[in-house]
Amino acid sequence: MTASPAPAPVRFLDLAAQQARLGADLRRRIDAVLAHGQFILGPEVGQLEAALAARAGVAQCVAVSSGTDALQIALMAEGIGPGDAVFLPAFTYTATAEVALVLGATPVFVDVDPATFQIDPAHLERRIAAVKAAGRLRPRAVIGVDLFGQPAPWEALGAIGAREDLFLLDDCAQGYGARLGGRPLGGFGHAAAASFFPAKPLGCYGDGGALLTDSAERAALYRSLRTHGEGASRYEVLRIGMNGRLDTIQAAVLLAKLPHFDAELAAREQVARFYDGRLAGLVRIPARVAGATSAWAVYAILLADGAAREAVRAGLAAEGVPSAIYYPKPLHHQPAYAAVHDGAALPVAEDLAGRILALPIHPDLSAADLARVTGAVARALGRAEAA
Ligand SMILES: *Cc1c(COP(=O)(O)O)cnc(C)c1O
Predict the structure, then answer these.
(1) Whose alpha carbon is nearest atom 1 of ligand 1?
(2) Which of 57, 68, 262, 304 is the least crowded, having the fewest Cβ atoms under 10 Å away?
(3) What are the phi and psi torsion angles at 64 (to 5°)?
(4) Is the Cβ atom of 295 under 6 angstroms away from ligand 1?
(5) Domain residue ranges in the chain
(6) Which ligand 1 atom lies nearest to the CA of residue 95?
(7) What is the pLDDT averaged over residues 186-213?
(8) Is 174 in the pocket of ligand 1 (CB under 6 A)?
(9) In which band, very low, low, confident or very high, does the pLDDT at 218 lie, cut at 50, 70 and 90?
């Protein structure tokens, strides 16, 4: 008997399959940009902005060079800087906190909810009260992160933000496409920052991002800031800005992808349901945010502890199933932020970082792939228990 060859590994992200699905439209749109040659702020950028705003149900969209730059431009437009406190969850990607520090402001880390992993509004209130009592920093902004594609608790954040007169920014990098109470993300908070990094639910083929807002004033500032603070004419410099524009070619890629986005979101939801069904009795599956849909940027399970996670990760790898850890450290434990952190305990973020594990989730996973993923998790857990 000959051993059958090991099947190809499951892919954590399958951009080749995605390209094949998009077909000729992708190349046609890129070719059109090559033909007209307006690589900076060509007509596709404006078309994309209109489409993204309409999808999100907001009046204004300003396409920018990345999700990180979207966050930074949003804070720059509010004049946030030294002496200002920007509240954000400790359990997120570094970009959320980085932009505050780049502008000289101070990130204040907030713990997250143990069920949904989203920022904990009760802890946010305590953190705001503590900052006010200490009197060193002025509370200015809250960045809610739609972690893993599920909405942050926008109703509670909106109430706290209004009461405390804070700028409310939605870090929608993982959540563009999700809904809360039937409304698409992008319209919660004063502005929302989306990312089109290739691995996000709506990804382009390079870096890209967008700002969404209902405020025409903010949108005008964002347009100025993304082009070096320019005024009505190109060489009038009104303020200090940055080079933060979205490339026309990336806009063309996103225009080709947008018609497929709803089907992709539905396919991600199907993957999540399959995983839920097979894994519910074995591990902690993702808790759904009430009244919401998810963009399923990440499907993360919780293992009993770090040793169980390592065992499952190794078992999956041995069966050709990739996994990833978002995030191995809460931000306040990262070297770059340790000196900024005020020492507050953030036990939930610390606990999650020690035992969370993300499984592959994207629209191009086959039924066989899904069965391989859940089978490998079950077998790895069986071995971990027997050991
Ligand atoms: C990816 C991501 C960003 C940054 O987006 P880029 O487009 O990579 O700059 C910001 N916040 C969160 C939560 C992200 O996941």
Answers:
(1) 173
(2) 262
(3) -135, 180
(4) no
(5) 15-256, 261-386
(6) 10
(7) 98
(8) yes
(9) very high
